[in-house]
Amino acid sequence: MLANIKYNPLIALVLLCAILMASCEKQQGIGADPYAGGRKIAPFAFVSKSTTPDIVVAGTVLNLQVRGLASLKDDFKLYVNEVEAELKSYTDTTIQFAVPLTASTGSVWITSKGETFFGPILKVGGKVSVDATFKIINGAAALQGERTATVYDLEKLPSGRFWLGGSFSNFEQKGTTALPIGGIVQLDANGAYLTTDVNFGKAALGAAKTIYSISRISEGNQVGKFIVAGSFNGYSNSRNNRLTLNNIARLNANGRLDTMVTTEIINPKPQEISKNADTIPTFNAGVDGPVRKAFVFGEQIYIVGNFQNFKRIYYPNSTYDEKVYDVTRMLQLVRVNEDGSMDSTFHYNKANRQSATAANGVILDAAMQTDGKLILAGSFTSFNGVTVNRLVRLNLDGSVDLSFKSGLGADGDINSIRYNENTNKFTLSGSFTRFNGKASSGIALLNADGSNVDSFNTEQITGGMATFAAQLNNGKIIVAGSFNKYGNYLRQGFMILEANGKLAVGYNNTGGFQGRIYDMMETAVGNDTQVILVGEISRFNSMFPKNVLRLIISN
Question: How far apart, in Å, are the Cα atoms of 75 and each of 115, 119, 535?
Fold first, then answer.
């Protein structure tokens, strides 16, 4: 009978798989547990999702509800935003601790045997807070296809409104692909986006489409108008034959380009009668590179940047569609009159018909004193052949002011400089470790003559560097950057110092800062101070301010 059974390969395959599966199950049943001996996850967790009260003062004793604290077997530490807190008492379900005197807003967490357990955000109250009444919600942003949305400058108007300038193409979600917001907006005193009385159109066009500097003209024939400067070759009108600007322009008070009609041009095709005249910018000045700052002094404009040449349209040889330029070699600086014509008494050598040699490096920032003297900061070590080491003050003719007592200068780059008219002092920030022989941690406070303020001494900055510093009218100093410690104190990118360089007690309660500040504006309100900060600000005090925010500082 067996001889009559035929071989079936399908049945054989099924039997073989069954045997193999049985073998595998047997091996798994007797094999060792690969995870045996591993550390068990502690059954601890925070129950409280917030604190009571919502905002606490440093030194306050708080209670939080937890679960399974006994499982940590008394081997744990509690931190408030990286600062260890003093434990008062605890049970399996509650923990009591004192908020550290140096703590700032951030997370509460517990560490035990290499494990970290995160709890609620603890908001530390103090003399500095983010102004919740400031009406900016979505802030500066970039439309699809655009890369940056930084705010570089702000200018306050007599009405209390202010203009912002930058590289953004969208603001408060008002920009569209058809009508982008070209780096300039108007806001009311409380930050509300405002188009009343202004129409910027598409604003800055071409090049980097960026406005780095806004200055209001406060006297003379052009009073009430604005000088905007940056990296652009057109304003509002994107037609190729209208892209004739060169990184600076004058705007009317309504935000439109200041223009006039001229018949001084050539028309090679007389039959095209419409091209017998042209609407041109009334302010005829430009440079061939980005402008970092433009200052208005009297009826003249100082243009500061990293350009090589000054350019001015020569209309008698120009047509409606093509412009011819007069070009003068002017390195990094030029001063012009109200019509845009170059002032040859500033930074200009009439013998060789060009500027002096200027800086041997990049100008990163600039400030102007009330007497019209410019102070330049950056990565250079000489100016017009004079050793100056990254900081120089110029006389009104553009020559180096040798009476400025900056001495040895900085041993590293200076990223920002700010001048406070009330205190008559300069604040510097950068990558330097010494200024004029005095040890520094990238921050310096100078007298008006350029000398160090003897009473100002900094702690060591670690984890990064200071990229912005500015003194308030009360003498305190706002510092921002990429650092995470100041001396032994945790300060995540933002701090307020006393005029002597010490951390200001009660003014450093805010949490982490991420980004970079480029400018600030201070306004006194009763006994308090409002400070608007602009830049590339992605995070501050557990908030996401979209590059613009306002602080309230109690005095």
Answer: 11, 18, 44
Sketch the domain layout of the chain as residue ranges.
46-125, 199-356, 359-509
pLDDT along the chain (555 residues), means of 10: 42 45 46 53 88 92 96 95 94 96 91 95 93 96 93 97 97 96 97 95 96 97 97 95 96 98 95 95 98 97 98 97 97 98 97 97 97 97 97 98 97 98 97 98 97 97 98 97 94 96 93 96 94 97 94 93
CATH T-level fold of 359-509:
Methylamine Dehydrogenase; Chain H (2.130.10)
Residue whose C-alpha is closest to residue 140's, from 183, 179, 178: 183
Topology of the domain covering 46-125: Immunoglobulin-like (2.60.40)
Q: Which residues contact 447 (CB under 8 A, 6 or more apart)?
A: 405, 424, 425, 426, 453
Residue pair 48/62 in contact (Cβ under 8 Å)? The answer is no
Vertex 539: Cα angle to 535 and 543 (nearest 5): 120
d(CA 365, CA 479): 16
- Segment holding 430, helix H or strand E: strand 425-430
Tell me the β-bridge partners of 77. Answer: 111
Distance of alpha carbon 155 from alpha carbon 161, whole angstroms:
9
What's phi and psi for 205, nearest 5 deg? -130, 155
d(CA 50, CA 48): 6
How many other β-carbons are positioned within 10 Å of the β-carbon of residue 316? 8
What secondary structure letter does DSSP report for 100? Answer: P
